[in-house]
Amino acid sequence: MIRKVELEITSDCNAACPGCARTLNKESLQINSFTLQDLQRIFPADDYSGVEFKFCGVLGDPIVNPDCLEMTRYLVQRGGYCEFSTNGGYNTQDWWKELGSIAAQHPGLVHIHFCIDGHRETNHIYRVNTKWNVIERNIAAFAETAPEQHATWIYIVFDHNENELPTARAHAAVLGFEFATRTGMRNSYHDWIAKLGNKNNKEEKIITTTGKKEHSKKDVIKDLDKFITEYKANKADKKQTDEILKTVVCKYIHEGEIFIASDQTMWPCCFLWDSAFKNKEGIIDKLNQFDPDWNSLKHHSIKDIQKHEWFSELLAASWEPTHPLHFTRCIRTCAKNKAYHNEINYADN
Q1: 153: which strand partners?
Q2: Residues near 242 by beta carbon (within 8 Å), at least 6 away in sequence
Q3: Average of pLDDT values for 264-287?
Q4: Where residue 101 sits, what CATH number does that domain have?
Q5: Which of 32, 86, 104, 204 is packed most tightly, with the most Cβ within 10 A?
Q6: Section 16-40 average pLDDT
Q7: What pLDDT sits at residue 148?
């Protein structure tokens, strides 16, 4: 049973975050967007009570999709819960007021995660191309029309923006938003180079995450990386392999979640779509053994794709390193009880 759906309703975005797949792989990027009619075709039922729809994705910001408001209205009118992840720096004040009105009219069914990583002086350093005056205007407009608790300010703490953390927390309180910090494993492993200024080429700034701002399970992932290296070299211990495989928590198999990409292909999670977009580990080449469009929602229903042998049998079997369809991504991101996943902290920092 599907309980959660992550929807990448567009691969378009107003920002150029240096750690984003679309920024790092411009040569592979194609702009695709759902229409309202696409969404209605994929989700034709009259009742989606108990189903969580997360408007997020790997490549785009959902609010850039021109049908975003109507999609929201369509789903909440059928009882669906809609959660958004957005940088907040796009669309008009009136657009945000309308989204706030939808949230107010359907209590408990709309929640916005404003991903704002800094305040006036620093947010643009990671959220490249966003403008603070636009973000400030938009979050105020949403707060004005959705006065109850309908939003959370999610703040990735980097070395360069830590000083603005108290200011952002205080601003969120004034708006009536929850406030949380986020730590991502990628940011704990990599430094990013942000290209700022006109056409993103006037200034470069290195973005770092060090010390207590790093992911608390970074050492766990280092151990998994070592394990992956060993089994690729046929040096992994079978007992250790079996023990690690038992710790895999799959979004699709264990949590009833699916991911729908902006090209309307269906995946078990955002991680494997990210791999497909980049063709990591030759994932597209390996899956090309199946019929064309085997996981396309332009040609099949969700239920039909679920019945496909890759979703119904081969996905779980492929976690075994010797399986011909094995992808290390499944081990690295979802073994050790999802140690890789983002950490969200709502407590005071």
Answers
A1: 114, 179
A2: none
A3: 95
A4: 3.20.20.70
A5: 86
A6: 93
A7: 82
Tell whether 198 is covered by a domain: yes
CA distance 337 to 246: 9
Q: Which tokens belong to 274?
A: 């990210």
The domain total for the chain is 1
Cα gap 65→260, rounded to integer Å: 15
The rounded distance, in Å, linking the Cα atoms of 116 and 299 is: 37
| Biggest alpha carbon–alpha carbon distance for the chain | 60
| Gap between the Cα atoms of 146 and 111, Å rounded | 10
Q: Read off the pTM.
A: 0.95
Please state, in angstroms and rounded to a whole number, the distance separating the CA atoms of residues 250 and 271: 11
d(C-alpha 224, C-alpha 2), whole Å: 29
* 80 pLDDT tier (thresholds 50, 70, 90): very high
Tens digit of each residue's pLDDT (9 = 90 or more) over 285-301: 999 999 999 999 999 99
d(CA 304, CA 294): 9
- Amino acid 347: pLDDT: 73
Which one-letter DSSP state was computed for residue 4?
A: E
Helices 165-175 & 132-145 angle (0-180, nearest 10): 30
Q: Is residue 336 part of a domain?
A: no
Nearest to 334 by CA among 248, 266, 271: 248
Confidence class of residue 204 from pLDDT cuts 50, 70 and 90?
confident
Which amino acid, residue 4? K
- Round to whole Å and give the CA distance between 158 and 214: 9
| Euclidean distance between CA atoms 36 and 141, whole angstroms | 24
- Is residue 301 in some structural domain? no
SS (H, E, C) 167-209: HHHHHHHHHCCEEEEEECHHHHHCCEEEEECHHHCCEEEEECC
Residue 112 lies in a domain: yes
pLDDT at 203 over 90: no
Q: Name beta bridge partners: 193.
A: 206
Label residue 261 exposed, middle or buried (CB < 10 Å: 0-12, 13-18, 19+): buried
Domain range for 49 is 4-212
What 3 state SS string does 32-69 have?
A: CECCHHHHHHHCCCCCCCCCEEEECCCCCCHHHCCCHH
